[in-house]
Write a structure and sequence with these properties.
Number of domains of chain A: 1
Shape of chain A: globular
Mean pLDDT of chain A: 92
Oligomer: homodimer
CATH class of chain A: Mainly Alpha
Largest sheet of chain A: 3 strands, antiparallel
CATH superfamily of chain A: Winged helix-like DNA-binding domain superfamily/Winged helix DNA-binding domain
Number of strands of chain A: 3
CATH architecture of chain A: Orthogonal Bundle
Distance between the termini of chain A: 35 Å
Order of helices and strands of chain A: HEHHEEH
Structural class of chain A: alpha+beta
Strand content of chain A: 15-25%
Number of helices of chain A: 4
CATH topology of chain A: Arc Repressor Mutant, subunit A
Low-confidence stretches of chain A: none
Chain lengths: ~110, ~110
DNA sequence: TTATATACATAAGAAAATTATGTATATAAA
DNA sequence: TTTATATACATAATTTTCTTATGTATATAA
């Protein structure tokens, strides 16, 4: 999933849900480019990870899709459902807790 | 590996290496208790994850072991080798980068 | 004597990625 | 003109890393 890092395992769904909460609707390729842009090329979302993740989130009812043809190419737009928004809130909190505890364990926050 | 979180996947080696860099030598069970203590019971290291990870780090030359019998029970103490210390520094930097980028992606750091 | 804590270990299975492959169109470069 | 790159989707095989379950063994508290 990344340039040299396998630490992002488990965070993909959270990242996707958060991006969709900020962007109303996005298509797969757009998500890969957005992640690339935000991380300045450090994190490259692999298609083999992204598309199955999107399908899973859709199957679980967290995402809704609309398909469009733009420039003769197919685009499958994803947007957050009601429950997807709830899931985003939950997963975001879990991610915050995770970061806090990882920082504790790795002694990255001085207890000034 | 955790109470309700699968986000820690991939961070176990880093956590172990960091703890060993701070404690000179530790044995497996001690590591599980240390992690439990630091995270206030939130993160419970599973033995099925920890012991294979220790064996792998040892096989790669990052850890050295000495075995002792205490109270009639076996203890296998692990300590960082020279290369293990280097690996710890590398993995710690990767973890820092990972956290920073995850915070960027999840919009957890206001750009004040 | 039963449960819990200490202390190690490994095998089977699940989950989530990577890598590789496939289809298809548009455009820039050689 | 044909080759590479970008856009846009998808899935299968494999790998990695974890969880769950199981096993051995001693000490102590209920």
């Amino acid at each position: 999933m990344s340039t040299n890092n396998e630490l992002f395992k488990g965070t993909l769904q959270t990242i996707v849900l958060k991006l969709l909460s900020e962007n109303d609707r996005m298509y797969g390729y757009e998500i890969t480019q957005k992640v690339k842009q935000i991380t300045k090329g450090e994190l490259m979302l692999k298609e083999g990870a992204l598309y199955p993740a999107l399908h899973k989130l859709e199957a679980e009812g967290f995402l809704e899709t609309t398909t469009e043809v733009v420039d003769n190419r197919l685009r499958k737009y994803y947007s957050l459902s009601r429950s997807g928004n709830k899931e985003m809130v939950n997963k975001l909190q879990e991610a915050k807790d995770f970061i806090a505890q990882l920082q504790l364990l790795l002694n990255l926050k001085p207890t000034t």
